[in-house]
Design a protein that fits this description.
This protein is an alpha/beta fold and 319 residues long. The protein is built from 16 helices and eight strands. Bound molecules: 2,6-dihydroxybenzoic acid and zinc ion. Zinc ion (ZN) binds at residues 8, 10, 155, 254, 279. Residues 74-319 form the Amidohydrolase-related domain.
Length: 319
């Protein structure tokens, strides 16, 4: 395998509120050792990277911190800064930001990139009330991404109070939790957000914006033809969605280990916008590595394309 760079790899800050940690109850039940792995930014993490042949991990806070005031994000980013410094080049950082407080989010994103050397941001997909980032109050946040030419990774987060009931029903509470999160809702919600940003004209206002969507593109690649056709009715966007998708959106493989969606992605997504990622510790680096080997063996990609997905595209995007 070529060197591997991964971009959706999570930790929990020492100051994470207990209420937020409680959101991971399903993962605690089903993923052995997940809390220990989330809380480690040194030996355990590096050992797990070695097992999966990960050369460089870009670490980011797990979902949910964006609803808390800026001091939580600052503390988390400071911890990553220290961990990166002590990692002998094995770690880099994506900033977390308090998206429920847009002005503070912009300021913290700016501090993390300009003062701490972070290579971008990974943020919760909506604020604490389920609000998205297509309004004017988020313009200062997007401005930071453009000014420093760094990507923003839109990462799914837990349903807000008004979103939660649509995932509840006459079934097991674990099923409700999964339906609202990694079993469906997260991905639909993040795909929707990308389309909302497009509909709002954000990509015309900020044509150099770089957005990363994980989990093999949060359903967008599979729906791309239909979205492209229908969205042509929407507005005055200078570039249509298909063009914006090709120019402004990058996708990662995080946590989806199947060649089926990959066939679709290879057919309709520029090869240099497809990035390997794991979603550690919710899935393991070894499982990701085994899938990369399967992709390589499958003949769906050339050696050169495999290297691009493994690390070259990430090097280019993160500089
Ligand atoms: C993620 O960060 O993508 C994630 C979680 C919890 C469970 C599954 C998952 O935070 O993919
Ligand atoms: Zn994730």
């Amino acid at each position: 395998m070529p060197p591997l760079i991964t971009l959706e790899e999570h930790y929990l800050s020492r100051d994470t509120p207990d209420a937020m940690k409680g959101l991971f109850k399903e993962q605690v039940q089903f993923v052995p050792g997940v809390m220990d792995k989330l809380e480690d930014l040194s030996c355990l993490r590096i050992a797990d990277m070695d097992k999966g042949e990960v050369t460089l991990q870009v670490v980011s806070h797990a979902a949910g911190l964006g609803s808390y005031p800026v001091n939580y994000s600052r503390a988390a980013n400071d911890q990553v800064y220290e961990a990166v410094k002590n990692s002998k080049g094995r770690l880099a950082g994506f900033a977390t930001a308090p998206m429920s407080y847009p002005a503070d989010a912009a300021a913290e994103f700016r501090r993390a990139v300009s003062k701490l050397g972070f290579v971008g941001a990974l943020v919760d997909n909506h604020d604490g009330n389920g609000g998205y980032f297509d309004g004017e109050e988020y313009d200062a946040f997007w401005a930071v991404a453009e000014e420093f030419d760094v990507p923003v990774y839109l990462h799914p987060t837990w349903p807000s109070e008004d979103m939660a009931p649509r995932f509840e029903g006459n079934f097991d509470p674990i099923a409700s939790n999964s339906l609202g999160s990694s079993g469906w809702g997260w991905h639909a919600d993040t795909g929707l957000h990308v389309l909302r940003l497009f509909a709002s004209g954000l990509f015309d206002r900020r044509p150099k914006l770089k957005i990363i969507a994980g989990h093999m593109g949060e359903m967008i690649p599979f729906m791309l033809q239909r979205i492209g056709k229908i969205s042509a009715r929407w507005s005055t966007a200078q570039r249509n969605f298909t063009t914006v998708y090709r120019e402004n959106i990058w996708i990662t493989t995080s946590g989806v280990w199947s060649l089926d969606p990959m066939r679709c992605i290879l057919a309709n997504t520029p090869i240099d916008h497809i990035l390997y990622s794991v979603d550690y510790p919710f899935t393991s680096n070894e499982v990701g590595l085994a899938w990369m080997k399967e992709l390589h063996r499958s003949g769906l990609v050339t050696q050169e394309e495999c290297e691009a997905i493994a690390y070259k595209n990430a090097e280019k995007l993160l500089r």
